[in-house]
Amino acid sequence: MNFPKDLKYSKSHEWVKQEGTQILVGLTDYAQDALGDLVFVNLPEPGDALRAGEALGDVESVKAVSDIISPVDGTVAEINETLLDAPETINQSPYEAWLIRVKDIFSEEDLMNAEEYESFCAAQT
Amino acid sequence: MGSYVPNTKKEQEEMLRAAGFSSFDRLYDDIPADVRLNRELKLPSGLSEMEVRSSLEETGKKNHVFPHIFRGAGAYRHYIPAFVKSTVSKEAFVTAYTPYQAEISQGLLQSIFEYQTMICSLTGMDVSNASVYDGAAAAAEAVAMCRERKRDTVYVSAAVQPQALSVIRTYCAGNGIKLVLVQEKDGRTDLEALDALPEEAFACFYVQQPNFYGCLEDCSAIARIVHNKGGKLILGCNPISLGILKSPGDYGADIAVGEGQPLGMPLSFGGPYLGFMAARKELMRRLPGRIVGQTADIDGKRGFVLTLQAREQHIRREKASSNICSNQALCAMTAAAYLAVMGARGLARAAESCMAKAHYLQEQLENAGCRRVHQGPYFHEFVTVCPPGLSSPQILKALEKQDFLGGLPLDDSRILWCATEMNTKTEIDQLVQIIKEVAEA
Amino acid sequence: MKLIFELGTDGQGTDLLPECDVPKADPGPFARSSAVRLPQVSEVELSRHYAALARRAHGVSDGFYPLGSCTMKYSPKINEELASMREFTGIHPLQPEDSVQGCLEVLARCETMLCEITGMDSMSFQPAAGAHGEFTGLLLIRAYHKSRGDEQRRKIIVPDSAHGTNPASAAMAGYEVVNLPSGPDGCVDLDALKQAADEKTAGLMLTNPNTVGLFDRNILDITKIIHDAGGLCYYDGANMNAIMGIARPGDMGFDIVHLNLHKTFSTPHGGGGPGSGPVGCKASLSRFLPGFLPNPCGSRYSLKRPPNSIGDVKAFYGNFLVVLKAYAYLLELGKEGIPEAARNAVLNANYMMSLLKGHFQAAYDRPCMHEFVITLEQEKKTSGISAADIAKALLDHGIHPPTMYFPLIVQEALMIEPTETEPRETLEEAAKVMNQILDEAQKEPSTIHLQPLHTPVRRLDEVAAARRPIVCYEYPQE
User: Which residue numbers delimit the Lipoyl-binding domain (chain A) (predicted)?
Assistant: First the structure.
């Protein structure tokens, strides 16, 4: 299981990468492993408002669907359209397969660093 | 007489004891005394198979089967090939549940995949689901597919079949979609009225080809107008007509729906029928209900499974786009068997005959003084107005006396007629003769 | 095997219709530019094709089918025969009333009998399936509150053990769904229900016996809590087979009921439908029912739309021939056979549960109704044997597996419903097979993941099917 040091993490297993004033959001290695083979991703549209703690979209495996929870209040700047045709990228390289880019962020959930998140995951099982 | 329970009383007693119960009553210990039905059901005693048969034969006699039918309006009498019935009455098909266990359900899954493919060929669409309840429910489900956050108004042509409109209305009342009727003009959708609608909130437009009055709509123009407004076009179509007429795909429709009953299903007092639904590829994930997909097993052998299930109610629950679970699978198989045995040539001949007989009927009725109400082209249905001094009930009663089920009375003076390949020239001539006689009397 | 599109050649097939005996009509600009692409296969090849498909299907006629929550009982053959009588199949739905009195009699009598069994006052047969009935029932709830000017009731309470159709139907009817967590006994947690029920509650959807196969003993308290809060109680009839003739939803405090005629009342399921999901209700709600109902009017029946009807949920009068089969079934069983069937359904389930004891862990270790749930949670943890593994292994033994992974409140669930029409030997044989499968898998866990070995295809790649959907045959390019 991989926990890159340069990222921050939410309790609902999203990762956040700061890029200037914007952030990228993705699903963690732990999340993709628990969800199994993903077959589809439902993403919001650019311009949609996000609220921290609320679902911004969802991911589907063959027999389940799981919400993706927004870690911030902000606005969707861009979505990773390549995932729509290749959701397996999330399974293959979760930290490259960003889901959305967020701009105009005005508040953020308390996020964990890599170390904290690793022990959080360890405590889950 | 009897409940088809195979175990003898003695066996039942032994099983009870083996499972740890002293009596049948103890099985129901969890049901509190105050909700138990502590009496016999007020029903008749059970009957033997022989008695049930004669009872239903008696009931059946209270129906009248018309040998000559000239009524459609949403339910059509067509020739049903012998092959169809013998195929779909195979016990393994009849007594199976939904194919959840793909490894032992390849027969059903493959048959649905074949059905989906035939519906796509027929409608000119990319993807089809495994069926819904009927044509009206298919229209209502299609409307729900088109709802988007900023587009929540659906427009429906006033020239669609009333039952379809009624079901769409009920579904819309449920999910809060606004429904607006677009008026008709001379039996077809008023294109000017359609064009004048606001773009804002325009989700989709539903129209039928042919429509309720049998008229053929200018679907190319309709598609242009609807797409210019950013909306989707849902085209309801008669599957037999597609043997010779342009398909929804040819017109650029986004979703094709229809009543599949003409494809091998008897009239049966309105059901079971078949709702078919097909769409452009982009809308695949919005289709409700079961969809069968092709894949391979662990040895690489081709096989079929229920796919895209994460859209559905058993996984998505309240977030599912539809609640449909059971559909009309055996009716879908009926349609596939019908299309397979008829083939393209047979379907075209059925469609040609329907259209030809309807036109012959219309000409002959015109001679008898029943003028057609509308001007434009039509397929196998059309509306006439009764000659002066005669009313719809008078004409229809006279026909019924001679064992003819005439067209559907729309009001006191207008009748919606239908002819199919089942109606012979002789029969049509007889019908017209009866009307002439009433007119003269 | 080949697809139908891979058989035959251009020009094959028999002409089944005569030449047209009147002049052709020209569709002009409406004509399609090329023929529809359909199979061109001789009738003999078609016949063999469908025979091969039938061999690759498993119906109740092929073997034991303990698919929980689906009530796969035997469907008497006589019912099929009666439903193919010309006197019923040849009737146009828009014929004059006088000429359809037989059909109306079937609907009216079937309504009377099913109302007696459920404790309801009237019933509409328009809904075509269970989920369709649920949607209809919820619209009745909406119409009721609306008629009282009580439109702030926006919430429907649904236990987390419910079928997915319940919350999906509630959402379709415009309601917000409140998921109610079940208690440790799998039943409704009364305190949680009291918390949830308030002036915003439109109603509760419940099945009793519930989805873990237990009768909720607190049922009168449950319906009272909802009624006291001003809501209505909706009964999901999926599990009616356990209690017909024994207890009635109407006496438990339910206001609306749907039945699955294709489960409880023996009409076969046809590989996914057509079913029939009639909705019954108490007299106070009858005026909202959909469609047209047959009213006795002297010695005949006439069709009437209830005065404040919610409209139509389907064209015409529902899946009429399915209703006809259920009616024939009711006549066959009568007042004696109906409770007898229910008692034996419960007996068979308890007997089968007792045969699995010591091998499989029951999710709730107490007597069940018509079905019970076992859990492989422990086996999954210790040896990696899942519910799906047991199910797939059963396929090689000609037994249709139980329902898997439902209800969601039980981990690694298998839900077993033998029904009353299975003989004792079948139950014993199936239990023996299941116990053996588990024992062998525990000795050698790796082998079970490879099963089945002898089915027409083996485990299929569902992930690939969903990622790159192929849902339509593509003809080879010419």
Answer: 22-103
